[in-house]
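[Discussion] Sanity-checking designs against the backbone

I'm trying to build intuition for which residues belong where. Below is a structure token string of 179 positions. I'd appreciate it if someone posts a full sequence so I can compare it with mine line by line.
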């Protein structure tokens, strides 16, 4: 999906709506685990087409995003006004071969890093949540804003996985994505 940084932020925050972002962040790992529990790898590898990710790829993406999020939040909390570098999610997916990743390991990596992030947010001085970073594409982003953005990001991908897995019982297996 090609969209401007502002359109992306609007879309992702729209996924969150009026939900409490910290509650969403705390619930995501459990929701992911419940969605993929007992699913055969074939279901997790199914993608609607070559332009969209499978559940395996989404889980790998979410694990990597949690590492990036943890770094960004720590950087901002420790150094108000720090520069934040963007990353190319599709480039990462190709370079890191998300399709070949182990979904259980991706989920474990996500869970561990998310738990550490939530612990950090709960133990630092809440006044530091007003600190900001300067994202090269999106501009000034406070910790509070990023928490909402990351929660919306979770909900966006949870909905994608729900759709993928609800379709898996009736959808034909698609050929592997061309390399």
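Best answer:
Here's mine. Compare freely.
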């Amino acid at each position: 999906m090609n969209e401007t940084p502002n359109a992306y932020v609007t879309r992702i925050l729209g996924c969150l709506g009026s939900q409490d972002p910290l509650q969403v962040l705390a619930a995501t790992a459990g929701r992911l685990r419940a969605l993929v529990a007992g699913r055969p790898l074939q279901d997790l590898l199914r993608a609607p087409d070559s332009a969209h990710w499978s559940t395996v790829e989404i889980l790998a993406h979410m694990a990597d995003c949690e590492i990036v999020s943890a770094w960004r939040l720590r950087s901002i909390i420790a150094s108000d006004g720090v520069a934040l570098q963007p990353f190319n999610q599709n480039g990462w997916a190709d370079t890191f071969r998300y399709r070949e990743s182990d979904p259980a390991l991706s989920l474990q990596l996500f869970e561990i890093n998310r738990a550490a992030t939530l612990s950090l947010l709960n133990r630092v001085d809440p006044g530091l949540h007003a600190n900001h970073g300067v994202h090269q594409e999106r501009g000034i982003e406070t910790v509070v804003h990023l928490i909402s953005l990351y929660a919306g990001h979770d909900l966006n991908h949870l909905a994608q996985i729900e759709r993928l897995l609800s379709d898996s019982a009736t959808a034909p297996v698609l050929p592997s994505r061309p390399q």
